């Protein structure tokens, strides 16, 4: 039926379909972006938004300014990880068939051509939003880093991979803070410390993917150094980070019941992670350990709301 109007004045089916096309398309794009991003939200969108909230409180913004800042932060960090996820999955389809068969290019939720079109769009939208939010320099730094990481081979050796991801933490957290307040000497110790800690422990994510990484010729930490030495190193790192988080992040806030509680929570998470990497060694267990690492990262940045 092609009629566009009816005697009753109601819209014909064709007209109704045209009206609903745009919201359906937008919803589908949101769904597809979630499918690409779902594995990384707790390492980017959630913790970075927590740090932006800490900056809002630190700057003493009013309700309207705070709401606008946080409303910009969430889509910014969604695009932040979306571009990285797209290029990672575009260049690693065969790896994902082995390690992460739930990803959309493997399941067919997106075509390869569609993913490339979305990547091109993100390359434009992400820095544009960064410019609107006053963090263009950090947006461009992140784009450079993930191009070095994925497109130019940085992901193939553990040292370059860990370094580029750690520098990405600087781009992430500096942008989160600068949306609300200047990045001053008060916050740089947090950013630099999170960068260094990320460099030390980010290789935990490679424990679960050894089979696929070896098949693709990647030189990750577990492949180069061996599984057990890596696990001992990660466990020692988690224990060694306890005095670092206390001295750099908790102690400057003074002695209060809530700083004691934060110290205790961080100690519990770090010791849990040290035990997990040593004792739980199947790929499924390593995947859950990586989830705990992301929760640890989020918790540390969430504490900035009260510690800074």
What does this structure look like?
With 308 residues, this protein is mostly helical. It has one domain (33-307): Farnesyl Diphosphate Synthase (Orthogonal Bundle), CATH 1.10.600. Helices cover 76% and strands 0% of the residues. The chain contains 15 helices and no strands. α7 runs antiparallel to α8 and α9 (188-201) runs antiparallel to α12 (227-250). The radius of gyration is 22 Å and the shape is globular. The N and C termini lie far apart (64 Å).
Task: Note the topology.
Layout: H1 13-37, H2 45-59, H3 63-90, H4 93-99, H5 104-107, H6 112-132, H7 136-151, H8 158-178, H9 188-201, H10 210-215, H11 221-225, H12 227-250, H13 257-279, H14 283-302, H15 304-307
In the CATH hierarchy, what is the class?
Mainly Alpha
> Residue ranges: pLDDT <50 for 5 or more in a row?
1-7
**Helix vs. strand class:** mainly alpha
Query: How many E strands?
Result: 0
> From N to C, what is the helix and strand string?
HHHHHHHHHHHHHHH
Shape: globular
Q: The CATH topology is what?
A: Farnesyl Diphosphate Synthase
Q: Could you tell me the strand content as a percent range? A: under 5%
Task: Give the CATH architecture.
Answer: Orthogonal Bundle
What Rg, in angstroms, do the CA atoms define?
22 Å
Number of helices: 15
Helix-residue proportion:
over 70%
Task: Describe the largest sheet.
Answer: none
What's the quaternary structure here? single chain
Distance between the termini: 64 Å
Mean pLDDT across all amino acids:
89
Pfam family, one: UbiA
Keywords: Membrane, Transmembrane, Transmembrane helix
Subcellular location: Membrane
Transmembrane segments: 66-87, 128-151, 163-181, 187-207, 228-249, 255-279
């Amino acid at each position: 039926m092609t009629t566009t109007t009816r005697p009753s004045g109601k819209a014909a089916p064709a007209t109704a379909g045209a009206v609903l096309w745009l919201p359906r398309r937008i919803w589908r794009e949101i769904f597809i972006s979630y499918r690409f991003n779902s594995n990384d939200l707790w390492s980017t969108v959630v913790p970075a938004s927590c740090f932006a909230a800490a900056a809002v409180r630190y700057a003493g913004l009013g309700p309207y300014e705070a709401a606008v800042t946080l409303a910009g932060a969430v889509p910014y960090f969604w695009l932040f990880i979306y571009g990285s996820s797209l290029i990672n999955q575009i260049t690693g389809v065969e790896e994902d068939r082995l390690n992460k068969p739930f990803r959309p290019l493997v399941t067919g939720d997106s075509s390869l051509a569609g993913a490339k079109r979305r990547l091109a769009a993100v390359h434009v939208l992400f820095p544009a939003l960064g410019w609107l939010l006053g963090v263009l320099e950090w947006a461009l730094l992140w784009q450079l880093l993930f191009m070095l990481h994925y497109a130019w081979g940085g992901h193939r050796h553990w040292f370059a991979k860990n370094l580029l991801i750690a520098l990405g933490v600087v781009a992430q957290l500096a942008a989160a803070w600068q949306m609300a307040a200047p990045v001053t000497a008060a916050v740089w110790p947090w950013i630099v410390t999170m960068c260094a800690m990320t460099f030390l422990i980010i290789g935990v994510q490679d424990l679960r993917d050894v089979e696929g990484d070896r098949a693709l010729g990647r030189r990750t930490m577990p492949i180069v150094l061996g599984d057990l030495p890596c696990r001992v190193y990660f466990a020692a790192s988690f224990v060694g980070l306890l005095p670092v988080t206390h001295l750099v992040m908790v102690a400057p806030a003074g002695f209060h019941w809530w700083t004691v509680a934060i110290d205790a929570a961080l100690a519990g998470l770090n010791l849990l992670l040290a035990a997990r990497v040593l004792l739980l060694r199947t790929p499924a267990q390593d995947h859950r350990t990586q989830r705990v690492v992301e929760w640890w990262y989020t918790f540390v940045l969430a504490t900035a709301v009260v510690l800074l």
